[in-house]
TrEMBL record:
BP-aspect Gene Ontology terms: carbohydrate metabolic process
GO molecular function: deacetylase activity; hydrolase activity; metal ion binding
Cofactor annotation: Mg(2+)
Entry keyword set: Carbohydrate metabolism, Hydrolase, Magnesium, Metal-binding
Protein name: ChbG/HpnK family deacetylase
Protein source organism: Seonamhaeicola maritimus
Length: 307
């Protein structure tokens, strides 16, 4: 058998694997979760728990009395203990993952790695804090050390995460090597990871990614300037069948948040209050009902596909 033919057979086998995965992901996930095949499934996800008392309190309220049904915790942040204690008091009723952190973006409010700074030198600035943006100079081995340390600390503190995702999306933007570190964490800890449909399919197979989010929604600066409520109303009305998530950052617009986000209006204190307000509103409730949107959680996905 010639090498060309062998190559064609391998490619066809690869395509069959991809096709089988796509069929499962797009058509059967809803049924695996117990919903009709063409359901519009949505995770309304609160990022950044642990970053402040205000963020924690608003997120807890939006989970208990509003329409937020999932969240993730930042292990290096100052208020992480409060977030973890809340999770431990609600071990099976709520959906909390880890918001894996490689940056510290605020002006006067910073944090550094969980690992010793001597172990992850490419991740920190001269003061020992994370860089304030996704840095292309980070080394994959330092990223692996730090992400593993964050996950291990969560388990050691009694937080059993339902999924992994990425603060500021850094793992997707820095390099393929860093993306592979992130995906490998999901594989090693047997956890779902937040990834979208643009991820290379070769990596889906390599790291046994069992679920992909069809649409990841998050408000941009321009969309915020045009009105948060208008953005979220349109997002819910436009939702398609499949699995989607809306990433939000609920917090109270109080002195703590104003001080934390000073000179940083994007995703700042007022922004976070407006996120909270919409997902506590009757408008949100009405749209979820009218659009027949099914709220699902990473916990459901994990139990159906990973446990």
């Amino acid at each position: 058998m010639g090498y060309r033919r062998i190559g064609i057979i391998i490619i066809l086998q690869f395509l069959l694997i991809i096709g089988a995965w796509d069929s499962f992901s797009q058509q059967n996930l809803a049924e695996k979760l117990g919903y009709p095949r063409n359901s519009k499934m949505l995770i309304i996800h609160a990022d950044d728990l642990g970053v402040s008392h205000s963020e924690n309190m608003a997120s807890f309220e939006a989970i208990e009395n509003g329409f937020v049904n999932s969240a993730s915790v930042m292990m290096p942040t100052p208020w992480v203990l409060e977030a973890v204690e809340y999770v431990k008091k609600n071990p099976s009723t709520h959906d909390f993952g880890l918001h894996l952190v490689l940056t510290s973006e605020w002006k006067n409010y910073r944090w550094g790695p969980v690992s010793s700074i001597n172990e992850v030198p490419s991740l920190i600035n001269k003061h020992g804090y994370f860089h304030n943006a996704c840095s292309p100079s980070v080394k994959p081995e330092d990223v692996e050390q730090e992400l593993r340390a964050q996950i291990d600390r969560a388990y050691a503190m009694g937080l059993n995460p339902t999924h992994l995702d990425s603060h500021m999306g850094c793992v997707f933007f820095i390099s393929t090597e860093v993306l592979e570190v992130y995906l490998s964490m999901g594989q090693q800890y047997n956890l779902p990871v937040l990834v979208g449909s643009r991820i290379p399919k070769a990596l889906i197979i390599k790291y046994d990614v069992k679920v992909i989010v069809d649409e990841i929604l998050g408000m941009s600066e321009d969309e915020y300037n045009n009105g948060p409520s208008a953005y979220y109303v349109n997002a819910l009305k436009s939702l398609k069948p499949g699995l989607s998530t809306i990433l939000i950052h609920p917090a109270y617009n109080n002195e703590e948040m104003k001080g934390m986000t000073v000179d940083h209006p994007d995703w700042g204190s007022e922004w976070r209050q407006k996120d909270f307000d919409f997902f506590m509103s009757d408008t949100c409730k009405k749209l979820l009902e009218e659009e027949k949107i099914v709220l699902v959680t990473w916990r459901e996905i994990k139990e159906a596909l990973y446990d």
